[in-house]
Amino acid sequence: MGLGSIIQKTFAGAALYTLLAVGANAVLPYTLEAGVTPEKGISQKKPESTYCGIVLASTKNETYAKINAARLMSMGYDNVSIQEVMKNNEKFYRTIVGPQEHMGLETILARVKEENPLGNNDFFMLVNEQRQEEKEEEKPRQAQEKIKVSKKETKETHRKEKKAPEKKIIPAKAKKETVRTVSFDPGLDRTLDNMPINQYLSLIAPYIETAYRTNTGKSMEPGRSTKLARYFYRDAKAEGVPVLAYIAHIATESNFKNVKGDLNLGTNYSEGLIQMRKLTQKDVFNWMRKAGKGYLPAELPESILDDESLQSRMGAFYFKKCWIAAGGNSRLATSMYNAGTGNHYIQEKYVSKVEKRKLEMVNLITQPADKAYIKK
User: Fold this and answer.
1) Per-domain residue ranges for the chain?
2) In angstroms, rounded to a whole number, what is the distance separating the alpha carbons of residues 189 and 242?
3) What is the 8-class DSSP label of residue 304?
4) CATH number corresponding to 186-372
5) What is the largest CA-CA distance in the chain?
6) 31, 273, 350, 356 from 75: Cα distances, Å
7) pLDDT tens digits along 324-335
8) What pLDDT is stored for residue 49 in this prediction?
9) What is the pLDDT of residues 178-235, one digit of tens each?
10) Which of 5, 176, 306, 351 is deepest in the core (most CB within 10 A)?
11) pLDDT at 158 over 90
């Protein structure tokens, strides 16, 4: 079948999005109700069978969708699938959890809300508002009388008409990927911590410039690489996390590009040097306020892109939470920075990327930045 398209509607101030799954013989309307919670979003009048599943993530990157699906399956979620949809002529991949053998969707939604398995707080129910079955059963009785066939034949005819083509679903398989590992000793995480600031800047500023130029084809503004290096050193030291590890995360996430990320979807997109999603930004900013961190703006800016110093402070603060949640385990803390502090498993592929960046910076001590940087 063809891919659906998204049409926006507004009802009494509540934004609803209708997914039209277009098939060869029928049109199946589905409603995506954003921000549904077990308390508010699920009407007790609607039976649970009207819900098709829970959309836990949506991304343009099919690989990310498969990783999300494998992650959910590893955490014990069954009936996980990936669905392709079209929005504004762009293809997106939704990671969906359906009803399970001994667990209904309302129970699963409560679990999702509590665990936040993908670390994004961005999930909603997929609701089937109009069933093709009900439409067929509402046909006037007079129309049936005109057709000179038995009631049994009429039901069989209707059953064939009602049967809609299935939506295109990519089954999620927990497939093992070959990960190119990097040999890095976690004992080297503190390599930069006690280095004199001038020596540190002479190593890291050129590295930042090299990584940025290699990935964008452009040079940074004069002095910007040194300014960023100072921010990272200042904030990692202030939070007590390894300077080397913190910079490696930023290099992996953005290559020091201050932009919106590839998860630029809806309102919960990632942005900045630290590629932190909008909902996470709110959480981190509030945590910093509660922790008594000084020199913060009165409120979180609508976008942090204009304040690289604030970005660095928020990133270091969040990395500290990951470090504490991981019990000082460098590899687990690295994984949590990407997947969330509630995810106690190691994403080998992501960790390997970060450790490659760490190794590059350790190599800076004996090699110039353009030689130490490992091109992708």
Assistant:
1) 5-171, 186-372
2) 6
3) S
4) 1.10.530.10
5) 94
6) 28, 30, 18, 27
7) 999 989 999 999
8) 47
9) 444 555 777 788 889 989 999 999 999 999 999 999 999 999 999 999 999 999 999 9
10) 351
11) no
